[in-house]
Design a protein that fits this description.
heterodimer; A: about 290 residues; mainly alpha; MetI-like fold; 2 domains; 15 helices; globular; B: MetI-like fold; 2 strands; about 70% helix
Chain lengths: ~290, ~300
């Protein structure tokens, strides 16, 4: 039972607060509730049509086909969506991490008036409060006036603005961990702020930079609202393509599930790569503001 | 939050600092400050993008008009109902799950990793996924219900049930979020406190009620606040699953604002709704933050 019960008795004391049987039942249900939907998504993506439209539903597919993925590519422009999603998410990541870390560095180590810092702090709080949809109409109008409708750039700008607060917040934490002596020493050696940022301090917080970047990537990969408002055809990312499946084309489950797998898989991969950083990133973003 | 260090200030450093902050400022200007200000301005005008007419200043008419619009009232009610119910369920289950996973062993760690999955995949994807599973005829959920002798449910087609379906999916996505954040604060409790209570003969339930809950309450309040505010941002899931339907049974504020502004192009009116929205959210957040400060003070 070593893997189920901990060595410290006080730990189990808490985790069994509703009794051991309740705990076992709840955890088993939890396990099923989380993983079964994914089993369903993945198997549907590989089922033949007769089996994804079966009554009663087929839980264990009798044969595996790649036809759904081929259909998704040929009929439903999977590659176009994938390309756009990648461009938008990586573009946003580069812009946000670069601009965000520079701002965080200047706020921590630069010489800026104190008031400005409070303005930023206040702004982060406000931005957390309002949903993206409240600026949708003015943004729609502004982007149209700028001639950026249906462009990847428009989505990069919008996603960047919504991810910047989190990135700045996290990067401030990482920069604060660098001992001040490092800054001081390089300042005495005659490094300007620009040089210190590029050559001294930022290389020291590289792991943090990468983690922050991955978080931004995931958020902008998943983004839907602005994508659906600001794209028509050329710049449509995967999330919009999936949503279009349901509304226009009825329920074509096989290709839809194939598309779903394509949206979900990169995010799971990133999560697996980051493991613990992910949890701390999300909780820091939630709790620090 | 932002404590800067004591820095020797040189002139180039000052210039560089401003340059460093410039990109962020430009992005926020285009994507946030200008749209917000513009929206605030528009909210006092009657302006429809599809009609070839210039905006007409109408004062607060857009704001008062809202409360005469039945659909607005309906979506407001729906949204409050959705927020209260889904956040309560998420809190209860999230705290229970956090408690149950608070021991440090392989199984718990594995489950915590799995817990991350629903909350980080695209809401569009999870909406699609659930739509597949909840389909009336071909869905696996109805099949399982029939298997144990219960009647099939029209999860998304019945106007009385659809909102509960949305709540169910929201809980599936975000109970893990609550659980993970509460879990980290339970783990931060010093073991001696719990050991002391145990030695004094307190039952596990009592320890939970009298020790764990009070100590973690500031975190729980913040998590509740985040979830409550986020519940008023729900858009992707509804868009994919019901489009606000059937009828207006699952219409919520964000989908309402979207429909008025982007579909019907009632720019002035939808801006007014949006501005009112931000104002009320700020008030709610302020109330939560006050509650938290009081809680923190009480704990010393």
């Amino acid at each position: 039972m070593g893997w189920f019960m901990s060595k410290r008795r006080s730990d189990n004391y808490l985790s069994n607060f509703l009794g051991v049987p309740t705990r076992i039942i709840v955890l088993i249900l939890l396990f099923i509730a989380i993983l079964f939907p994914f089993y369903w998504l993945v198997t549907n993506a590989f089922k033949i049509e007769r089996e994804y439209f079966a009554d009663p539903p087929v839980v264990f597919p009798s044969q595996i086909t790649f036809q759904n993925f081929i259909d998704a590519v040929k009929k439903y422009e999977l590659f176009k969506g994938l390309k756009n999603s990648l461009l938008i998410a990586s573009g946003t990541t580069v812009v946000t991490v670069f601009a965000g870390s520079m701002a965080a560095y200047a706020l921590i180590n630069g010489s800026l008036p104190r008031k400005l810092k409070n303005v930023f702090a206040g702004w982060f709080l406000v931005q957390k409060m309002y949903p993206a949809v409240v600026v949708a109409v003015p943004v729609f109008y502004i982007i149209r006036t700028l001639g950026l409708m249906d462009s990847v750039l428009a989505l990069i700008i919008m996603n960047a603005s919504f991810n910047l607060p989190l990135v700045i917040l996290l990067m401030i934490g990482f920069y604060q961990e660098v001992p001040y002596e490092v800054e001081e020493q390089s300042m005495l050696d005659g490094c300007s702020l620009l040089q210190r940022y590029f050559y001294i301090t930022t290389p020291m917080v590289k792991p943090g930079l990468v983690a922050t970047g991955m978080l931004t990537f995931v958020y902008s990969w998943n983004e839907f609202l602005y994508a659906v408002i600001l794209t028509v055809n050329r710049a449509k990312p995967l999330t919009v393509t999936i949503a279009g499946f349901i509304t226009d084309k009825g329920l074509i489950w096989g290709p839809m599930a194939a598309m779903g797998c394509t949206v979900v898989f990169p995010v799971l991969l990133i999560m697996w790569l980051m493991q613990k950083n992910f949890i701390s990133g999300i909780s820091a973003g939630a709790l620090k503001g | 939050m932002l404590i800067s260090r004591h820095v020797i200030q040189t002139k180039t450093d000052k210039i560089h600092s401003w340059l460093f902050i410039l990109p962020v400022f430009v992005i926020l200007l285009i994507a946030a400050f200008i749209p917000l200000g513009y929206g605030l301005g528009l909210s006092f005008y009657r302006y429809k993008l599809n009609l070839q007419q210039s905006p007409v200043f109408v004062g607060f008419q857009n704001y008062t008009g809202m409360f005469k619009d039945e659909l607005f009232i309906k979506s407001l009610k729906n949204n409050i109902f959705f927020a209260v119910l889904s956040v309560s369920i998420e809190l209860v289950f999230g705290i229970i799950i956090a408690m149950m996973l608070s021991d440090d062993n392989t199984l718990s760690r594995l489950l915590i990793t799995f817990l991350m999955v629903p909350m980080i995949i695209a809401p569009v994807a999870s909406g699609t996924l659930w739509r597949m599973m909840l389909d009336r005829t071909y869905g696996i959920v109805n099949y399982l219900l029939e298997l144990i002798g219960l009647p099939a449910v029209s999860w998304l087609g019945d106007y009385r049930i659809a909102i509960y379906t949305i709540i169910l999916v929201d809980c599936w996505q975000f109970t893990p979020f609550v659980a993970i954040l509460v879990l980290s604060s339970i783990k931060a409790i010093q073991k001696d406190i719990i050991d002391a209570a145990r030695v004094d003969g307190a039952s596990p339930w009592k320890v939970f009620m009298r020790v764990v809950l009070p100590i973690t309450s500031p975190v729980i309040i913040i998590v509740a606040m985040i979830r409550f505010i986020d519940a008023f941002k729900v858009f992707d899931t509804i868009f994919v699953m019901t489009q606000g339907g059937p009828g207006s049974a699952t219409e919520m504020l964000p989908t309402y604002i979207y429909r008025q502004g982007i579909k019907f192009l009632r720019v002035g009116y939808s801006s007014a709704t949006a501005i009112l929205f931000i104002t009320s959210m700020s008030i709610i957040a302020w109330a939560f933050i006050r509650l938290r400060t009081r809680q923190l003070k009480r704990l010393g």
